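Justification of computing resources. Each target in the renewal requires a structure prediction run like the one illustrated here; the chain below, 298 residues long, is used simply to show the kind of job we budget for.
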Amino acid sequence: MNKNILILVGGNKNQLNPFLIEGGKLGLNICCTSFSELNYFLDSSGKSVSLKIGEYDLKNFDLIYIRLVGRRFEDASIVADYAKKNRIKLVDGIYEKAQFIRLPLAKGLETKLLFEANLPVPKTVFSSLADSKNLGKNLGFPFVIKSTTGKQGHDVWLPKTKRELEELLNELNERESSGERFIFQKFLKAGTRHRILVIGGKAVAGIARPTRWRKRFTKSSPQRSALIPMPIEDVNLAVRASNALGIDIAGVDILVEDKTQKRFVLEVNSAPMWASIKKDTGLNVEAEILKFLMNKLE
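Resulting structure tokens:
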């Protein structure tokens, strides 16, 4: 009997169409939809809740893959709770460990967990903006400032001068007053960043691409390219990092320091964009993910 797989996204469900195409080739029963179609109805007739996508109860599905939460944290928490109570398998596996784990993890927590798992991360300070004025002694100057909730490379700054730092801190004060937090990291002179795609504890593809601030310290301009074969150091770090966070499908960013060639895990993206990986390596990412989901159902 065929198993039923639900794939959810916190946005336009049309981006999931490649999964429908590849699912058809594999003979899978795939439903791709948005959290916006999630609904339930409570009345006085009993305590049983039927959580549905459109007209279909989530109990009809054997596995739910949450591709991207976006801003749908409340919806994702409801799905995770319902799935666990009804023994529906969840991907990423981190959702099964608690009532609900917010993904992506805030960078302050993510970096701490990676460090505690003995993974190399840039020297990092989690503190207030006011304290950052004295971080030059520990991190050197310039140092990187990141919002802990920034996504896809947004909300990251590298002030060139002390004056730029002061101006930036003044701009960010209001955001901090509203509850936003920031981390501060040592600036590594790395002209290349490696993105390794991990699916189910296995590194399946990787690309190299130039870093944002490479022109601050070098005139060389590395080109984006496929990592074929992937360096064993990258493979090991990427798999360890995704396992440390309990993330099944991850894009792990690794900085390669120019002078020492040392690797540092910069970020583990739980909802990675993979268009560049598909283009540069030729990997059919959706097919690989669906094969992993099939194995989870066995």
